[in-house]
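Sequence dictates fold. Below is an illustrative record:

_____
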Amino acid sequence: MVDYGLDSLFERIVAQLAATNTEFFRRVGRHLAIEIFTDETCKTVIQVCRQIGEEENKAPGSSVIVRQRLRAHHDAGKITRELLQESLELLDDADEDCDAYDTEEILKELIPVLKRHAQKEALNTAIDSFSKRTDMEHVSALLENALRIGSDDRKLGTKLSSKVIAQINKLRNAKKLPTGIFELDAALAGGLDRGSLALFVGPTGAGKSMSLSHVASDAITNQQNVAYATLELGEEYVHARIISNLTNLDWESIISSERMMREAEQRLQGLEEKNLLGFCTVRYFTPNATTVDDIRRWVAEEEKAYSKKIDVVCIDYAALLSAPQHNKWEQLTEIAEKMRGVAADKKCWVWSAAQVKSSAHDKKNKKITSDQAAGSMGLSRTADLVITLNPRDEGETIMFRIDKNRYGRGGEDIGPLPHDFAKGRVAPVFREGWPF
């Protein structure tokens, strides 16, 4: 364990400011890694502040909110009575001394420590990536974030000049997530931009869930880390579809046949031994009782448990999530906004799906649009990318339509393309150097 040399009183002041000072938390809140602190009470308060910040996307701003969350943790058996009492006493001091410290002076001492910790994490990630011979582009992003810790976002806009070209070039070269559907990715100039929300929209049986598992599978083959939240199929079915896509075996046979199960296991082990796979975790959530915040917390728990940064979050599917609003239109709009918030905050890709109205796909209606999403147009209006699935040839092929593309051209039809649902694939797969 690295000793960052923080004084015990200094740690208490940092914890107090995190709980009560909005400006302080805005500058450094999300970088307050509990590993750099030694006092358990300070760790507890800071961890609660960060949880609130991640869930609400804003600083706690008041010790009242932090106190309530601490009591909830105690009632849930997450912290002891003694630790709760010590944390509440720390917050009592915070309320009394809220104006006693110069925030800028505290930040001046704290920011170099936070940068040092972030740079250490980037170094460890670089060593791990180098040993596994994986892409190290994300290491540059970690180092860049480390340098920006504590920066004040209250600044002027970007002046139009020739220097802007360099920024545009950086945007052009930004990492994109392909869908694994070759023709569609070509039309999308490589795929979905990082930090974006995308939707597959289509009728029952068109392949929405299969498309999500296809995207997840392709991400895994590109060494991305995937968290797949399913509110419809059981975890074993999602795993089977992804394994089927990766190993070119019939997913139903993987479940039902012991021989095919062993074959899938051998092929999967071969891929693992060649270090061809990213990380993937799947969890079933109760439909109509799970919120986007529940999934956000789960992703954070997975990242902590496995020391992995989740790159792709798949949610199958959006309409089965819950939100506190009274009508479905408001619910789905808030759900979409929160999903997009996860993508933006975590700088990851979020993919989900939406059902169309029962009348949307008939003989008179040849092309499905995002406006036909059942329950609300809030989903498609909020999403950055909407791909509609249009079955053709009595369901033997799919035409993919780029119905909306916030960062590129839309209104383009791709296909129809043949699918292979039996092997978890919604389009032909082209993976250079791939054994299956």
